[in-house]
Amino acid sequence: MFISPRLLQPGPIRRLLPSLVILLLLLFQGGCAQRSVSTIMETTAYCNCSSCCSWERGSWKWLKLDFWNRYVSAGPSKGRPYSGLTASGTVPKEAEEGLFSIDSLHHPWMIPVRIILFPWCLLPHDGTIAADTSYYPFGTRMYVPGYGWGVVEDRGGAIKGAKRIDLYFSSHNEALTWGRKRLSVTVELP
User: Fold this and answer.
1) Contact 89, 153 (CB under 8 A)
2) Which of 7, 9, 13, 166 has an alpha carbon 20 to 30 Å from 70's alpha carbon atom?
3) Contact 71, 82 (CB under 8 A)
4) Minimal CA–CA distance to 168: which of 186, 140, 144?
5) Please, is 168 exposed, middle or buried when counting C-beta atoms within 10 Å of its C-beta (0-12, 13-18, 19+)?
6) Does residue 172 form part of some domain?
């Protein structure tokens, strides 16, 4: 390949050449595009309540007088303190679409209220999804229609297989309303 001696002289093109080479290498490695796959999955819902997460207030060791403490009431961790954290060690959260979402189109009068009273809700954030980590490792991002984007941060006792996930909701009523649905879920591949 012939390179003109003029290009090798100091100038704006020569200074940009290393950046252009790095950009081209990233583009050819597929660094800009995320690959994703859509699959039909059975989705269920859970919250952080005692019936969904199997915990109880107080211990019989203290005759239930320590009612402010929460203990695991079932499974292999029975009797241990319940922290409320996910299996990956994060605090579970419900998916939020942010200011620019479908809800803003349906309720445009709420936009000024959200900007003034709830400015921290302007940015969207992913929700917590429980999945079988042998198929979807922690950090796998998924889009569930009707729920939004979520990240696998938890694993449940009944969540087995590649076609089953559990979505976190902030209230038990919302979790019951969601119920059990078979949906086409988009999974982002690493």
Assistant:
1) no
2) 166
3) yes
4) 144
5) buried
6) yes
Enumerate residues 6+ apart whose C-beta is below 8 A from 55. Answer: 70, 71, 72, 73, 82
Band (pLDDT 50/70/90 cuts) for residue 31 is very low
* pTM for this prediction: 0.67
Return the C-alpha torsion angle 94, 100, 106, 107, nearest 10: 90
pLDDT value at residue 187: 93
Tokens encoding 99: 């200011």
In a domain, 144, yes or no: yes
* 123-140 confidence digits (pLDDT tens): 778 899 999 999 999 999
Query: Is 71 inside a domain boundary?
Result: no
Let me know: does 45 contact 167? Beta carbons within 8 Å: yes
What total of structural domains would you count in the chain? 1
Among 94, 50, 90, 93, which Cα is nearest to 69's?
A: 50
Per-residue confidence at 107, pLDDT binned at 50, 70, 90? confident
Pair of tokens at residue 174: 């919302």
Question: By CB neighbour count within 10 A (0-12 exposed, 13-18 middle, 19+ buried), where does 2 fall?
Answer: exposed
Q: Residue type for 154, please? A: D
Indicate whether 151 pLDDT > 90.
yes
Domain of 114 in residue numbering reads as 38-51+86-189
116 in any annotated domain: yes
